[in-house]
Automatic annotation (TrEMBL):
GO cellular component terms, semicolon-separated: cytosol; protein-containing complex
Protein name stated in the entry: Methyltransferase small domain-containing protein
Organism of provenance: Xylaria grammica
Species classification: Eukaryota, Fungi, Dikarya, Ascomycota, Pezizomycotina
Gene Ontology MF annotations: S-adenosylmethionine-dependent methyltransferase activity
Lineage top rank: taxon: Eukaryota
Region of interest: Disordered: 99-118
Length: 250
């Protein structure tokens, strides 16, 4: 399958922001981590994610679970959250990272990582309201944008909606900006994807998010049959995929 097949598999683009609302009391992060790291899911099958992908996660929390699970499968994975979680998330990553990831923390302590264990998982502070999204988030002079931006269970109240949506848009815009500036002439033409997974708690909060998100993005909801068995068994999970409206149409 090719990248363009992704949107055919997703089905109709969401035109009505109120479409598909529901509620449920489940914890989403472990199940999403498992789904994202399964090579059977549509993102891997269509090439939207691959071993060469660079991924940015917003609001990773102290566990960094999604990054720990997905980063061994991609080229670069950058976790972000606010400053107050930095010490705890970095400690958790150091204790739980696989060898090639752990090398980044060894390097900070004066130990040189093995050339066979390239660093591909890192953490950077990012406040959605205060910080500017720039290419420096990639952590590499050779990478100017991300193939995917992930936000998992980040929407708890109305105050978070606008800053999160704008940060998602700014992060995905790095792809187009880098192409226009020629910063990455060898970069794939595919637009950056924004993958938002959430546990539906309050219909009004979800409605506010989907309306705001739809102002910037073309939006698809991942069909239930394309979710994992564990996700399907628990109502109240939704995963949406967005592509910036001004990006190259899929």
């Amino acid at each position: 399958m090719a990248f363009g097949d992704l949107f055919g598999l997703l089905g109709p683009e969401i035109q009505d922001p109120e479409e598909g609302m529901s509620d449920g009391p489940w914890k989403i992060t472990p199940l999403i981590a498992s789904w994202l790291s399964s090579l059977d899911n549509l993102l891997w099958k269509t090439g939207a994610l691959s071993s060469s992908s660079s991924v940015l996660e917003l609001g990773c929390g102290i566990s960094g679970l999604v990054g720990l699970t997905v980063s061994p499968l991609v080229s670069r994975y950058v976790l972000t959250d606010q400053t107050y979680v930095a010490r705890l998330v970095e400690k958790n990553l150091e204790e739980n990272a696989v060898p090639q990831q752990r090398s980044s923390y060894q390097k900070r302590k004066g130990k040189s990582p093995s050339a066979a264990n390239p660093v591909n998982l890192g953490f950077s502070t990012l406040d959605w309201e205060l910080d500017e999204v720039t290419t420096s988030l990639t952590g590499s002079s050779d990478v100017a944008s991300f193939d995917a931006v992930i936000a998992c269970d980040c929407i708890y109240n109305d105050a978070l909606i606008e800053p999160l949506v704008q940060t998602c848009a700014d992060a995905c815009s790095l792809r187009q900006r880098s192409q226009e500036s020629g910063a990455q002439s060898n970069e794939a033409a595919a637009p950056a994807l924004c993958v938002v997974a959430q546990q539906l708690r309050d219909p009004e909060i979800f409605e506010g998010w989907i309306r705001g998100f739809s102002r910037h993005f073309r939006v698809w909801r991942v069909p239930e049959e394309m979710l994992s068995k564990e996700l399907r068994a628990n109502p109240g999970f939704v995963i949406h995929i967005g592509v910036l409206k001004h990006a190259v149409a899929p």
